[in-house]
Design goal:
Elements: H1 2-12, H2 38-55, H3 69-80, H4 84-97, H5 105-114, H6 119-128, H7 132-145, E1 152-155, E2 159-162, H8 167-179
Antiparallel strand pairs: 1-2
Helix pairs in contact: 1-8, 3-4, 4-5, 5-6
Length: about 180
């Protein structure tokens, strides 16, 4: 759901560079949330569904709460193929629209195939964890910056917002760091 606001931010602030980073909200051994439990049901009913409707975004409460590290590795791989944005969007669609398990190698490979990417190359990269160091580096950076929620928006490593934000808040975040940059 962060994507519509990010796209709008880029449209109105074309000099802003958006870099998506890996962050696993509940890495092993942190327990996964029960998709049938009260916490997720209430969060979706009271926050996610109303906001999705407001933004015109289709979303369903996924029936699984997978570990996302492999999905982050796959997205990093897609970046090495110059297709990060396409793959990233498809991961979100697979999870939030179709309720697929994005922690599954089979699902991640099917996304690559759908986009016309070399699924054998992705399969090998996931098996050998070629992109795990980059994912772990992103997760370390998130810890250093104090990120503990998704989505999180960090501008120039000096200011941050957590949770889904309207584009106005993102513009204020960017402008606040620009005004504190020497020469900005």
């Amino acid at each position: 759901m962060a994507e519509p606001a990010v796209r709008e931010l880029i449209r109105v602030e074309p000099d802003v560079e958006v870099v998506w980073r890996a962050f696993e909200l509940r890495p092993d051994p942190v327990p996964k949330r029960d998709p049938k439990g009260d916490y997720l049901k209430n969060a979706w009913e009271n926050s996610v569904y109303p906001l999705a409707a407001q933004l015109g975004v289709k979303m369903v409460l996924p029936p699984v709460q997978p570990r996302s590290r492999l999905a982050h590795e796959a997205a990093q791989w897609a970046g090495s193929q110059e297709r990060f944005n396409d793959y990233h969007q498809e991961i979100f669609r697979a999870f939030f629209e179709r309720g697929q398990d994005i922690g599954s190698v089979e699902v991640l490979i099917s996304i690559a195939k759908k986009l016309g990417l070399d699924s054998g190359s992705l399969s090998n990269a996931l098996e050998t964890h070629d992109f795990l160091p980059a994912v772990l580096s992103d997760e370390h950076e998130a810890a250093v910056l104090g990120v503990n929620a998704v989505p999180a928006f960090v501008a120039d490593r000096r200011a941050a917002l957590s949770g889904v934000q309207p584009v106005e808040n993102l513009k204020l975040l960017v402008r606040s760091t620009m005004s504190r940059t020497p020469g900005g």
